[in-house]
Structures are given as structure tokens and as C-alpha cells.
Sequence to fold (331 residues):
Amino acid sequence: MSLPEAIDSADFAAAIGRGERVAIAEALNLLDDRRKASRDRATALLAHLLHAQENPTGHLIGVTGPPGAGKSTLSAALIAVWRQRGKRVGVLAVDPSSPISGGALLGDRLRMQTSAGDDGVFVRSLASRGQFGGLSTEVWPMSLVMLAGFDIVLIETVGVGQREVDISRLCDTTCYVAQPGSGDSVQFLKAGILEVPHILVVNKADMGAVARRTLAELGAALQREHPDGHWQVPVLATSATHCTGVEALADIIEQHHYELRSRHELASRRRSYQAYWIHKKLQEEFGSHGIDQLGGEEALLAQLQVQDRNLLEYYEALRQRLYQRFGGSHP
Ligand SMILES: Nc1nc2c(ncn2[C@@H]2O[C@H](COP(=O)(O)OP(=O)(O)OP(=O)(O)O)[C@@H](O)[C@H]2O)c(=O)[nH]1
Ligand SMILES: [Mg+2]
Fold:
């Protein structure tokens, strides 16, 4: 079943806001569609969703960490806790299950665990591709769709070292899941290669001494005050398979969300994800040279952050400006 082509974008956005699965699935497909007519429809839809999110609700959570650390298993356990607490959860699993880790798709994990057939959970897997540090450029608009339909949106992505996904620039709260016994996470944090997460988790605590050692090492390696300010980064132990520490993790995640809301930071953070996305889209289309033409990355991001007008319209204006400058026609 699919929605009729001609459905008005306000009605479309309203159906997503009611959490209608068909509308959500259709919107995610639309965002993946590169054809011009689909892009125009997607832009109109996003404008409605952005308007509805002017006073942002919902919680956008990034779960990252090395392959096989247990991100999917832990996410499934967290989702079970959130469902018990009455929250509806949308999931975007980016580049799920690296072949080397023996990890399973998050969707499979969910089917195996508590949420089978649960209408309050929606999982979408997407390939990693493009310029976005391994993340698809569609992650931001897709997260917008998910936020309109769910209380909590979780993005799972593999993150190891420098070249990896900067998921922290797209999420309200970032959890880094570390693997016991692997010194990589400690080294990366010390060297400043890993963006500091809001919450550090050592999963597989059931492994005993080796997990406790990693917990101590990570605690010592970490600059506890988060660069965002006003937040001491907690280091937690969980066992996703034994379901220990998961409720405590859910509590800390909620506390971070509460802090963001009480300091009225959510709206400006959400705006910065959009600015970051526009910058990456322009880079994808016009290369670094295009960004230089607009004054460079820093200036562009600063300019986007303070724009009053609809950023999607502004993005189209910037595209047109670059097409004119490069002597091409605006597609
Ligand atoms: N002992 C133990 N094993 C775990 C735990 N959590 C996950 N695992 C196992 O670790 C392996 C990888 O788990 P996944 O949840 O797929 O890990 P992932 O980080 O999502 O993996 P990728 O998405 O491939 O990067 C599986 O065999 C899990 O059963 C845990 O708390 N304790
Ligand atoms: Mg996984």
C-alpha cells in the first residue's frame, strides 16, 4: 500500500505526525529518491515537518562505537526499556552489521527480542554512502521524519577513529559503546580522534575483569566535562545480553535530554544539524571549491546558524548562486 502521489504535503506531514507507518515508510522512500519531482515533493514535506518542529520535541539519540561492541544488542535492550516506559521508538540503522564483527542487523535483534510485532517500534536500515563521513546525507531529513512520528529516535552507526561518522553533529545525545579489552577507544579518546560522546558505555560487562579494566581506563582517559558545557560525561557498564545496566543507561540518556530542554538548547542544536546537512549537501554537489566560493566551511556554517528564513529555501538560493557562478544551469 502506498499513499497517492498527489497527497498534499500538509496532509502527508500530519499523517507522519500521527505515527502512521505507511506514511512514514513512504516519506523515507521519498527522501531516498533522487528524481527531481521527488526532490521537490521531499522539500515541501520537510518544510512542513520543520514548521511542526519549531518547538522541538522528541529525543534524537546516536549510538556509535566499534564493530561488534554490541550496539545493536544494546539498542534492542534500550528499546525494550523505553517501550515499558510507554515511549514510541523509531530507529535508523546506518550500515548495519559489519561482516567482520558477526553482528546482526538491529531489525533482526528486535525480532528476536521483545519488540516483535510491536506497533510502537519502527526500524529502517540505510546504507552508508556519500560524503557525509560515511553517513548518508539523507540521515538528517530521515531523522526529521522519524522525530515527527516517534518520541525517541535512535541512530545506530559504526564509529571507529578519525575518518568515521560525526554522528554527534546530528544527534541530541551521543552514546559511545566501547568493547572491553580493546585499547582503541582509549587511545582515540586520548588523542582527540574520537569526538567526546555525552555518554560512554562499556558493554559486555559480563566479561568480568577485562570489562572492569576498560571501564577504569576509559574513565581515566576522558576529559569529563563535555565540550558542549554543563555536562559531566558519565562512564557506565552494561551487559546487553544479560540486561544489566540498561535501565540506568536509559535514565542517564533521559537526564541529558532533560538538561538540554531545561537550558533551551534543543532548538539551536536541531538548527545546527540542518546547517551541517546543508553544508554537506553543497559539498557533495559542488565540492570544496563550491564551499570556498561561499566563504569557506566555518563562515558558511555560522551564516546558516543565524539565518531567519527557511533554511531549505536558503539552501536552494545558495545552489542557484553556485550554478550561476560555475556557469551551469540550475537543475
Ligand atoms: N558477552 C556479551 N556479548 C554481547 C553483549 N552484547 C552483544 N554481545 C555480542 O556481541 C556480538 C555483536 O553484537 P552486535 O549487537 O551485533 O554488535 P554491533 O556493535 O551492533 O555490531 P556491528 O553493527 O556489526 O558493528 C554478538 O555476538 C552479540 O551477541 C554483551 O553484553 N555481552
Ligand atoms: Mg549493529
Observations:
- The chain is about 50% helix and 10% strand.
- The first strand starts at residue 59 and ends at 65.
- The chain has a mean pLDDT of 84.
- The beta strands are 59-65, 89-94, 121-126, 152-158, 173-178, 199-202, 235-237.
